Amino acid sequence: MKHLLTLLVLTLLLTSCSKNPEQFIEHLNGYWEIESVTLADGTKKEYTVNETIDFITITDSLKGFRKKMQPRFDGKYDTSHAIEALELRLENDSLNIYYTTQYDHWKETVLMANTHQLQIVNQNNIVYLYKRFTPITTE
Question: Which domain of life is it from (predicted)?
Answer without folding.
Answer: Bacteria
